[in-house]
Amino acid sequence: MSAPSHDPQPASPTVPSSVDVAVVGAGFSGMYLLHRLRELNLSAIVFEAGGDVGGTWYWNRYPGARVDVESLAYSYSFSEELEQEYEWQERYPTQPEILSYARHVADRFDLRRDIFFETRVTAASYDEQARTWLVRTGHGDEVTARFLVMATGCLSSSKLPEIPGLDRFEGPTYHTAHWPHEGVDFTGMRVGLIGTGSSGVQSIPVIAEQATALTVFQRTPAYSLPARNRTLRPDEIADMRANYRAFRQAQRESGFGVPTPIPEKSALEVSEEERDATFEQAWESGSLVNLLTAFHDLSIDQAANDTAKRFIHRKIHQIVRDPRTAADLCPEYPVGTKRPCLDTDYYETFNRPNVRLVNLRRTPLVEITDRGVRTSDDEYAFDAIVYATGFDAMTGALTNVDIRGRGGASLKEAWSAGPRTYLGIGSAGYPNLFMITGPGSPSVLSNMVVSIEQHVDWVIDAIEHLDRQGLRTIEPTEEAQDAWVDHVNLIAGATLYPKANSWYMGANVPGKPQVFMPYAGGVGEYRKTCDEVAAQGYKGFALST
Ligand code: N01
Predict the structure, then answer these.
(1) Which of 90, 175, 179, 199 to mutate to test the pocket of ligand 1 (most atoms within 8 A of CB)?
(2) pLDDT under 50: residue ranges of the chain
(3) Phi, psi dihedrals of residue 441, rounded to the nearest 5°
(4) DSSP state letters, 172-192
(5) Where does 86-197 have alpha helices with state H?
(6) What is the pLDDT of residue 13?
(7) Is the pTM of this model over 0.90?
(8) Cα–Cα distances in Å, from 344 out to 96, 319, 328?
């Protein structure tokens, strides 16, 4: 994959000593936040570890990377001019296309002059006397801010497999979330790839076309649907442009941030023919949401979910010629309880003579050696290794910063048994600290751009409210936070989500507490709750002068 040109604007020369708002991260959240803060005439700066805007889309440049929400929906809604002028190319745009959209937004709204690139925030501590945050960067900069907003993304702290020998391999290694900007040419190479989540599923078909041989090491298979990606037709773009306002409203009221008809039928009440025809339609549509909402009980009833599982297993066996490989590619956990994937020729790739699958459930990984990868029964020699092994999701990027609230309490320690937030926006003990799409909000169970805009708008309204009322601090109460955590758990407990060892549960990071982190009640319901909280004078938050 050829990376887009890497041409960040120079950052401002010096970090100011004090601002109204310090923002961490210049992905879709940090960019929109900066734009809104400027509209309020507040002074703001953004610290960004990467060399340019884009967040996820700046880092994840692996071959085949693209979003699995349609481009016209995975875009900002805050500017009608932006909506009308930006020309999306594909139904599911590639990483370079999305990054170029982010760069366009940064240019159009002149955002870069307040963003400090290649600057990682390492610590932030709250001064209870002054009621300000002191934010420190890896370069030794310090800035005092009335408010601190962590716009750090849910999937930004990457992880490697926990096996010995990671530094022993003599060839090049790559993590999908830190792909070289200049791209990688695997021509003539024997490549080993570990991990079959969305990043693995998207990159495997592309790497297989280049490499002499590709060996895929799979611990847990993914459910994946064909994306049926294509170039957008001019009439589709014109239609969308004419109807954006109604579409945006429908997004905000929907379950996943993607408008879909609400299913009325149970998978168990229809005939087998009707059920298969419904699943077939979803499979053909190239939309994950269509599959997940094909029947109303897929996410809550095991027997209903089993019907979707059997349908996908059948598809895998129809596509993959070798029966043992096909069986190894069939997941057993309920459909949708780990993040499902959208692919281009994923299962077909296992019919290629240069691709083989190693089932780590049968022969576990033992170590990385100087030549390649050793499992319990063999050593595989490679010229390059790709780690598609994911992230310390949802909390990693927050707890990696040494955040200290009231009494010097560390956020990492406060969350040692799992994240505790009110609405996924704030945490008790951390006044004037906001999280964008934090744990306890729909975040990763939704179209991220919809959830990001909702949180940014809510935070902006909250700051405006405080300033208008002459108030200086806002902080969730312990009671409201406890009740919200219970509510998040109650909703998750009514679904099949906890049945899988997923990163939603923290299960992919050894030692991480296993709690279901996102809010599963849906984007529309969640928005109503947040709006009610604000309308009732920020109920559940303590506000003070
Ligand atoms: O990461 P993952 P990802 N030994 O955690 C395996 C979003 N995203 O980067 O499942 C062996 O899903 C691990 O195995 P297991 C999307 O939300 C979106 O692929 O833990 N294997 C798994 O197979 C997605 O869900 C898009 O048993 C090990 C894989 O590595 C999220 O990002 C594209 C291992 C990691 O999969 C994360 O996706 C890309 C070990 N020690 C990403 N450790 C789109 O929009 C881990 N694994 C399309």
Answers:
(1) 199
(2) 1-12
(3) -125, 165
(4) -EEEGGG--TT----TT-EEE
(5) 95-108
(6) 60
(7) yes
(8) 17, 13, 19
